[in-house]
Amino acid sequence: MKQRGRHRRRRRGAALRAVLTGTALALTATATLISVSQAEVTGDPGALKPLSAAADTAPLRLQEHLIPARALDRLSAAMGGAAGVSTVIDDTDRALREGSACSADDRASLPVAPSPARAYCWDPADTTSGAWRPASVTTSGDADEDGVWGRHRVVLAGWTHSATTGRATERGLARVAFVDADDPGRLAYRWVLLVIPVQGGRDYRGLTSDVSGMVWHHNKLLVTTSTGGAEALYVYDLDRIQRTTVDGPAIGRVPGGWSADGYRYVMPAVGSYRFTSGRCSASGPPCPGALALDRGTSPDSLVAAEWTAPDGDRKARLWRYAFSSDPARGGLLATDRAGRADAVEAYRTRAAGIRGVLSYRRPGTDTASWYVGRLPSSRDGRGALWRQDGKGARAAHCGADASHHCWARSAGSLSFWQETGEVWSLSDRMLFALPLASLDRSLN
Prior knowledge:
- The protein has helices at 6-20, 54-57, 69-78, 85-89, 104-107, 140-143, 436-443; strands at 49-50, 62-66, 94-95, 97-98, 118-121, 132-139, 154-161, 174-180, 188-198, 203-206, 214-217, 220-224, 231-237, 242-243, 251-254, 257-260, 265-275, 288-294, 301-306, 317-322, 340-341, 345-348, 354-360, 369-374, 384-388, 393-395, 414-417, 422-426, 430-435.
- By secondary structure, it is mainly beta.
- The longest helix has 15 residues, at 6-20.
């Protein structure tokens, strides 16, 4: 991907940084920031506790399972050949509105402190029913260090359909919004349905799983799976997006071609990772709920946070896997000869209900800070975002009562775009971005 015009990218990157680091939108109530030392903090997750004993790290081991290339090639050939990310971006059919044009209910879902530099609401057709919900985000800043994939800057947002509401054909499915982010003032998107090849690539079915976490690295997209499932992560290949040929409610091969419940594009999984010690559960391996990419390690690493109930007593684990340094395995985890991936770092945190995680090492420091976005114990309120390390934790405070519940409502995952220095995330209603520097200022 290095042949793209670097000078043009730098100019666009500089313009985007100028927009994002300007005056923040007046989208939420005015926040009164108070230092941690000035107020009593409830729910403080405290310092991270390293986990190094075999009994703690062994349950984190994954086994890689890749779908044979011949099965993937058979499906691609039957569907008329693969499309790429640029094909989808050039075919966007829905627009995101800027924050000032969004409803009061949409804006109320945004963080109070720090307030976003940019925010966008989705096409009303995608949010009015309440059946689909956004939860995960990753960008071309994760995929490639220059922030551009092909000819475009891209944001991917993962949505999951409720298993109990909406049309029966949609229940439990997962889809990804491919967002054209070339112009920060005019974002547009197109849906791609996530599917699983079956019958040796002769058919496919919908992915019936939550996508609470998602990371795009090289040409691979890693997504989390539902709590209690056999797989911990599914792997998708951005070079294997397929076009459907029949506009119908079925998913898979149908008379006359290929259907995906009305979606024009599908992306078939190319593999998965399973815990070697069994299905994730409260007593077994941790169910991954949030994912993020960390470019501050060598090689790059995938960080994960355990899915726990926000009002439960079980505290979460944070851990990371190294990505493979083999160019032929770009975007896949580093594994041994038996295809096993071990966690290279793990911690216990007193935080629960984590729905967003980042690991970032500031220049000149020896250890990384972990940012965890948490749901409140009541899903009707706001969450909190904490920065943790081995010494303690800090959070922004807002309002006259110095509450630390200042983060987004029903917050989703976090993604750091290294080239522009911004963090992307989601509420239950909006997509937003803010500079990491402003996030850190609010925590100090």
